[in-house]
Amino acid sequence: MISSQNIDQLQVEAYRQMTGEERLRIGLGLYETSVEIARKSIQDRFPDASADQIEQKLRERIQIGYEIQSAAASES
Q1: Domain assignment of residue 68, given as a range
Q2: How many domains does the structure of the chain reveal?
Q3: Three-class secondary structure of residue 50 per DSSP
């Protein structure tokens, strides 16, 4: 039986076999996907918002995420 731990180990091994460029491409793709999901969530929540308003709310959401991460890191 394959466990989540085994899957994680297989994924780590696959990443180790990749070049730095391949890993960076995956990371950037994940970032772009998460930004697009956040943008769509904002559009769903504020259907009458203009494109500029959606982008502003997206920037605010990202900034709040950085602030939460920074506060958590300083507590460690």
Answers
A1: 4-75
A2: 1
A3: coil
